[in-house]
Design brief:
- The longest helix has 15 residues.
- α7 runs antiparallel to α8.
- The relative contact order is 0.09.
- This protein is elongated.
- It has 517 residues and is α+β, with helices and mostly antiparallel strands.
- It has a 20-stranded antiparallel beta sheet that branches.
- It contains 10 helices and 20 strands.
- β4 and β5 form a beta hairpin.
- Keywords: Signal.
Amino acid sequence: MTAAPLTGFRAFALATVAGLALTGAAIAQKPAPLGAPGAAPAAPSLPTAKPPPLGGAAPAPAPPPLQMLPLPRRTPPGVTQAPAAPTPPSSLPAPQAIPPNEPAAITRLRGLLGRETRLSYAAAEAQDATGEQARMTGVVLERPGKRVTMDEVTLMGLRQDGVAETVIRGFATTEDGNTVRIGMLRIAGLTVPRTAAGAPPQPDDVTLDSLRLENLRVTGGANVAVNLVTVEGWGANRPARLTVEGVESTGLDGGFVDGLRIARIGMSGMDIARMLGALMREERVPSLVGQTSLEMTGLQLTGGGRPVGGIAEFRIAGDITATDGSGTGTVAVRGIRVEPVPMIGEWLTRFGYQAIEGEITASTAHDGKTGRVEVRDLSIGARDAGTLTMSVTLDGLTSERMQAADFSQARLISAALGYADASLFRRFLAMQSRETRTPEAQLREQYAAMAGGALSQPDAAALAPVRDALVRFIRGQAQAVDIRVNPPQPIGLEEMQQVPPSPAEMQRVLGITATTR
């Protein structure tokens, strides 16, 4: 993973960010009529029915639908779900007359929602002399088969293509058997261009100064809770910031994992709007010059109410120096812990481990023009087991080829692989000794003879250092072994496939050496 496509983890949360932003945009973007996907929106029509009296008591909030965040149905394991019969939409609700003293912002909102949506409220008041700032309580939005309730809605600067600010409190809906509730949603500086054909806007067409969502709760199939979501600076060529805090989900269909918790997720410095738009159009994803980061803390996975594993800290940071993705970056995954789940429980017991604990770190560099990629000091360490290290340098991987996953022109310049044993190899020998009733010293000599025989060939003196290094490690005379690959000249992937499967020939073509410590 290089710094340039450091945003290779960019797909993570992008759909969530866009969905939240465009959910707010629904206030200013008229939906297509139900039952006619892709049809042009109907012309707004003013309702005529009698509304609830102004100042009346607000009705108790009933659950409402998040149109922009559809929730999946859950199917019990091993059960094939039959296609659901289409539910015929109920008749449109009776239109509502506009009260003579209704604030202008609310009347404009009716027109934007369209005649297929009925807006009603218990009370409304203008908060300025022009009625462009308005507050409603006991709000209900109804469409055939759908119902949304909101305890309070405040509108400021509502336009045909967006809103200066809106605050929604006590949002609730039910969708596909899942109840969705939001404590508070604030959207500021939203602009959603209206297209002539009525098509939905692209993510990079939308601009949003800020979004704040508090206390999202989804109950039904898989239960989800999110304490806080914030988005700042959404828009093309803008470095956006995303924060998600207090995530908890239960009832997941993940095998031995059925629940998770995440303390915090953060993204900054990424042009999320253009990235998501390019991905949807299957275009090359652009890079924004500057500092970027993606981090997560406090991941905990559970199964049957018991811990399964987790990560204390996950962080990717990059310094992008050109729009072609050139730059440097770092990766760190710390506090990894995997409990003895069924897949590995027996293996851990045999090796004498209670759990796996470790960390992963690396630094990277990428030159988008020359295609040079460096993965430096990739380290995978497991406590009381050992540390695997790796580095590799390639060229021929320009930004265009990386985006297209085209490795046909990639060439290997150098590589290194190392392993420092903390106790894993010794535990392996002890386990083999117990199960085969063979002394450990005898097992070491058997493995050393096998490695020596495989790397001993006539007229292949260059293999001797490699063979001797491996034999020393197996016999316990060294605790670490390092193998390096330095071909006399860069070698392409196709050329490597043509190298005869002979240790001597591979050593000659790839320049393989080994040392111990």
